Amino acid sequence: MTVERSAPPTISEVAAEAGVGRATAARTLGGYGYVSPELRSRVLAAAERLGYRANALARSMSTGVSHTLGVIVADIGNPFFAGVVRGISDASRARGFDTIVLSTHESLDEEIAAMHVLIDKQVDGIVVASAALGPKTSAHIAEAWSRGIPVVLVDRAVPGLELDAVVIDNREAAREAVTALIAAGHRRVGFVWGPPIAGRPDRRRDLVDAAARNLWTDGERLRGYLDALDDAGLPFDADLVMVGEKTEERAIAEVERMLGLDDRVTALFCTETDAVTGALRAIRATGFRVPADVSLIGFDDSSWAAVMEPPLTMIEQPMLALGTRAAEVLLALIDGAPRSQPDGAFRHTLDTRLVERSSVAPPSA
Amino acid sequence: MTVERSAPPTISEVAAEAGVGRATAARTLGGYGYVSPELRSRVLAAAERLGYRANALARSMSTGVSHTLGVIVADIGNPFFAGVVRGISDASRARGFDTIVLSTHESLDEEIAAMHVLIDKQVDGIVVASAALGPKTSAHIAEAWSRGIPVVLVDRAVPGLELDAVVIDNREAAREAVTALIAAGHRRVGFVWGPPIAGRPDRRRDLVDAAARNLWTDGERLRGYLDALDDAGLPFDADLVMVGEKTEERAIAEVERMLGLDDRVTALFCTETDAVTGALRAIRATGFRVPADVSLIGFDDSSWAAVMEPPLTMIEQPMLALGTRAAEVLLALIDGAPRSQPDGAFRHTLDTRLVERSSVAPPSA
């Protein structure tokens, strides 16, 4: 009996056609476990009559193309990464590729595990916002390449790794924001958040090293803050840089500390969304007001920032465009384009924008 | 020659060991394309000497367990779903399962495609926030089951489908919020957002049907709004329900319209984050203030809502717990537990919480 139908037949239907149990059909068609030769041949005959297709996994093993891209991000709950993923997914869908995403909770070990999952699932290419800091910690990325799976970095470059990286200029964006605060008259500008270390080094070099050891973007943003101080001839003061765990709670404590200094901060530069909300809570808790008492600029614009009272001046990252460009570069590599220049410095740098609203004013007297 | 090493050998290393090109080794080990019998046997011998392992994809085809869960959500950029995914991922990692995520942009067609990707990638189970509205549109979910892959619904039940669904009581949460607004003295409460339809039906039944046809949660939240009006003996007025596309821009236009009515709204109930920010923009644009002129309660609490001026009263959904519970139910099904009761009414309902802050006050005179 053959069946006229448009939907592909299921294992249960093959089992019914063969007159065997579902488990027997599944074992036969999946190629696992024991099935007697007689039942096996009945199942295979039924599968052929019904036009049962081997699943795409088996197909991808024979064709080498699964039309799936893998994406690894640090934290899927961060609206920034959600926007990047959206951009990747839109651009890859337009080319007939599905996108699967894994989140690593900012853990390099989880990133390595995620990379192996994607290799095992035979994706055609991978976009990763990597926590790796150099070639020594990026063997998992090299392994994907060695298995013929192209990898493109997004948001975070890995210094020394010869790979396409689609990023913004974090250092320049931070410099621009802090320069805007200094131009408004501020001399005591706090940096939230800084490196996640217990002690507070006095030397700026040690702070920068600690930040860069944690995350490439962290180091770049701290460098941009220092650039702006240098440009204006302002002294560096380690007390104005947050240290400790990168959480909203810790940001509250550190900003309250900076607001309690004898020569207190009059402006804050916050490098992430939770740093912004933590700073705002600390400002409110200490009875200060934005921007009359404290000016503030944050990273990662959102619809919330625009409806705050006052609306917040923010650095807007091109989240969708970062994702779109990363997907385009990856799809070109899959199509056989050469990868980045061997000097390893090949970066696709997209523009940020300082969205000026009403959270910056001259310092109060 | 055998090589002492800890990292698994790559295809390139097998090729070098066999003295063949990488493409030849890849074709042989991947089982695709033509390779001469002589080269094939050299590659296979080299692979055996180096201990090259067939990839996990091939392994999962022979063992039937890939230790991977699949998650399908409507919009990975929505912080609510990001929280749910985080909960699923934490709970499944604790059991040694990786989680891969696909986002469907609220499209049933994309959900169906995503389901097939996950079936093809041989995940062991699937959690889906489905756009399906009943058994007629959920054949893809049944197909996963028929292939031996358990499915658990999260956030959205599918009426008539006999499946475990981990949800909140949307109707009750909405009723509680609107009742709080009415208890503060409001008689003209706007509902943002309503069904995404072009015209504005006068009959409440038509509005509810339109909302429920769009999304299960939409229908439930509108019913809760109507329950609260009924409880208080307040009349239903179709003019106080937003219609049209569910975007921040449309919410701005609809709230401005409601604020411009002769008998204007004095309170708003907003069912999603972008509805809240749209309402706040409209309130500001028309010169009104929260809560002096307009009270507001929103769905999906966030750290932003707490730092608004005034801090916003919000319904807090247990995002992480929804994800954790969904993963637990799914892992139990994978372990062989029976699925939901055959009446199809078996739901795991988690509690919401009305977080009272400062955006609700009595109506102005």
Descriptors:
repressor (chains A, B); transcription regulation (chains A, B); 45% helix; 11 strands; DNA-binding (chains A, B); HTH_LacI (chains A, B); LacI family transcriptional regulator (chains A, B); 434 Repressor (Amino-terminal Domain); alpha/beta; Rossmann fold; 3 domains; 365 residues; 6-stranded parallel β-sheet; disordered N terminus
Seen as an oligomer or otherwise, the chain set is: homodimer
The biggest beta sheet of chain A is recorded as: 6 strands, parallel
Shape of chain A: elongated
Task: Please give the alpha-carbon distance between the first and last residues of chain A.
Answer: 91 Å
Series of H and E elements of chain A: HHHHEHEHEHEEHEHHHEHEHEHEE
Low-pLDDT segments of chain A:
1-6, 55-63
CATH class of the largest domain in chain A: Alpha Beta
Largest interface here, residues on each chain? A-B, 65 and 64 residues
Residues in helices of chain A, as a percent range: 40-55%
Average pLDDT of chain A: 89
Main β-sheet, spatial strand arrangement of chain A: 2-1-3-4-5-10
What fraction strand of chain A? 5-15%
Count of discrete alpha- or pi-helical segments spanning 4 or more residues of chain A: 14
Q: If classified by CATH, what would the architecture of the largest domain in chain A be? A: 3-Layer(aba) Sandwich
CATH topology of the largest domain in chain A: Rossmann fold
Structure description:
Two copies of one chain form a homodimer. With 365 residues, the first copy, chain A, is of the alpha/beta class. Chain A is 45% helix and 13% strand. Chain A contains 14 helices and eleven strands. Chain A has helices at residues 11-18, 22-30, 37-50, 56-63, 79-93, 108-120, 139-146, 170-183, 204-214, 216-232, 248-260, 273-285, 303-307, 319-334; strands spanning 68-73, 98-103, 125-128, 151-154, 165-168, 189-192, 267-270, 295-299, 313-316, 347-350, 353-355. In chain A, the strands form two sheets. Chain A has a six-stranded parallel β-sheet, sandwiched between helices. In chain A, strand 3 (125-128), helix 7 (139-146) and strand 4 (151-154) form a beta-alpha-beta unit. Chain A is elongated, with a radius of gyration of 26 Å. The N and C termini of chain A lie far apart (91 Å).
